[in-house]
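Ops channel
N.P.: pipeline sanity check, posting one input/output pair.
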């Protein structure tokens, strides 16, 4: 689960780095792609946390 948290934090940092680049189409595309990956990681984290709580 610790690895998953590190991946989530890395994605958030990548998003933060690109989101400030307004008007840059490539950066916007990277942010969109990263948010999709973040969504998947969030679902994995939810499954892992529920399993750990049992």
């Amino acid at each position: 689960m610790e690895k998953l948290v590190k991946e989530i934090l890395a994605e958030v940092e990548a998003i933060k780095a690109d989101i400030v680049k307004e008007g840059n189409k490539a950066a916007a595309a990277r942010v969109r792609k990263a948010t999709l990956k973040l969504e998947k990681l969030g679902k994995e984290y939810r499954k892992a946390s529920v399993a750990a709580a049992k």
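N.P.: looks fine end to end. The chain has two helices and no strands.
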